[in-house]
Amino acid sequence: METTPAGALRSFAAAAICLPAFLALRVFAWSSIEAPSGGLLRPLTAELTGYVYGWVLFVLVSLPVIAGWGRAALWPRFVVAWNWISVVQYLVQIALAVLLFLGPPSILAQGLTLAVIGYSLWLEWFMARTVLGISGGRATGLVVMDLAIGLFIAGFVQRLSIG
After folding, report:
1. Residue 68 main-chain phi, psi, to 5 deg
2. Does residue 40 sit in helix, strand or coil?
3. How far apart are the C-alpha atoms of 16 and 143, rounded to whole Å?
4. pTM of the prediction?
5. How high is the mean pLDDT of the chain?
6. d(C-alpha 85, C-alpha 134), whole Å
7. pLDDT band at residue 28, thresholds of 50, 70 and 90?
8. On the CB side of 28, how many CA atoms lie within 13 Å of its CA?
9. Is residue 16 a contact partner of residue 83, using CB atoms and an 8 Å limit?
10. DSSP assignment of 100-139, as one string?
11. Per-residue model confidence (pLDDT) at position 162
């Protein structure tokens, strides 16, 4: 695994790899709602803006936190691992979306959704704990911070989408 700042920067290729999955997930989500009266250009632009922020904001905010724990030297390695586990998370989400599109019974759909969310959270927690050599509590803090940033970005995207 790359452990240099240049390697961390190169690992953002994962964002390009995940972009088709991201767009497919948006199409799945939009297929269940009525099309906006102004068209899809504004919501798509908002979603793509949020996508970029989603890949960058957590990484930047995590640096001072990780540095505060005396692990700044491991931050590039953390970024590389975080970027590449995102590919796995997107693959699992796409598989779930396809299964949900097929219309399984409600209880199965809810169980699968819960399992995918749990797996994604666990994977990020495990990666942070392992790559940074930190406690489970600190890894949980990073996961919660990532979720909070994701919710902030989702609200931002929603406001941009509707004007």
Report:
1. -60, -25
2. coil
3. 23
4. 0.91
5. 93
6. 18
7. confident
8. 17
9. no
10. HHT---HHHHHHHHHHHHHHHHHHHHHHHHHHHT--HHHH
11. 80
Query: Residue range 20-24: average pLDDT?
Result: 95
Q: Which residues of 6-28 are buried (b: 16+ CB within 10 A; e: fewer)?
A: eebeebeebbeebeebbeebbeb
Based on DSSP, count helices (H) and strands (E) in the chain, helices before strands: 6, 0
Tell me: the pLDDT tens digits for 29-53? 877 777 666 777 888 999 999 999 9
Q: Are the beta carbons of 77 and 3 closer than 8 angstroms? A: yes
Assign residue 19 a region: left if phi > 0, alpha if psi is -120 to 50, beta otherwise? alpha
Tokens of 91: 């693959």
Of all residues in the chain, the percent with pLDDT exceeding 90 is 82
Q: Which residue has the tokens 């598989």?
A: 95
